[in-house]
Structure formats: C-alpha cells, structure tokens
Amino acid sequence: xxxxxxxxxxxxxxxxxxxxxxxxxxxxxxxxxxxxxxxxxxxxxxxxxxxxxxxxxxxxxxxxxxxxxxxxxxxxxxxxxxxxxxxxxxxxxxxxxxxxxxxxxxxxxxxxxxxxxxxxxxxxxxxxxxxxxxxxxxxxxxxxxxxxxxxxxxxxxxxxxxxxxxxx
Length: 168
Fold this sequence. Notes:
Layout: E1 18-19, E2 25-26, H1 29-36, H2 39-46, E3 55-56, H3 57-61, E4 69-75, H4 78-94, H5 99-107, E5 123-129, E6 136-137, H6 144-158
Antiparallel strand pairs: 1-2, 3-4, 4-5, 5-6
Helix pairs in contact: 2-4
C-alpha cells in the first residue's frame, strides 16, 4: 500500500499596508489619507528621491548596525535644498522632535560634522534617521563623498603608521 498526502498551500494576509503616493508606508488607512493631505506629503512629493523603497543602514552594513532609516535625495538646486530642509523639519516635528532637538539636528556646535545645515547642492544627499524618526543626521556636506571622507578620517585615526626603525 502506498500513502499519498495531498497538501494545499493557502495564502493568508498577515499584514495590510497603505502606501502613500510618495512611498511612505502606513498601517492605518486614515493616517495615510491624512498624510497625503498634509504639507509634509506635498514637500516630500516635490523632492527627487534616489531610493524607491524604505532603506536602512542595515541594508548597507549588514548585521553590525542599528535599524536606522536612510533616505537619499538628488539635491541639484537651491529650491531642492529648501524643500529638503522643509521636509526634514516637518518629518522631525511629525515624529515628536522638540524645537530644541530640531535646532540641534540642524546646528549643534557639538556635532558639527553631522549637522543638516552642512548640506550643499549639486549632488546626492544621504539623510540618516533614528529608529523613531525624531533625530536625523548626515555626514559632511551630505554627499556620498562626505560619508566616505568621514569613514576615511575615522580609519586614519586608528591606523598606526609603520615605523621603519621598529620593523628591522
């Protein structure tokens, strides 16, 4: 005798997402609708994004980092930069950042290399967000090159130059 087992695969909805026109994901339809009617949405929609999905630092660095969001924009003009600044302010506010925190994010004297007011035009701009979205930063002028320069300087500080006299 031979026994046949017939298996049936059943697809089941495990989560429902509502995706705004600019790609922002919500888990509640009314929140998504309210967002699409807000100033944040209007400004977000005007920005030229270079990422088309939610991206985290984990996607770049693997398992050795926190789950922070990364957004990349193409900032070519002064108008693009002003729209980006408005977007950052509105998103920080929406996510619960106080005016003091927002001021620090843009112009902190203690975190000069990460300040958002360092961003310049004419290149891609990488914006990093805390898990809760109530803190944001960039490296140098916000460009990919600014990020690499930051990393290079960190590595250069820990690398001890070879001393030919000690290697004999």
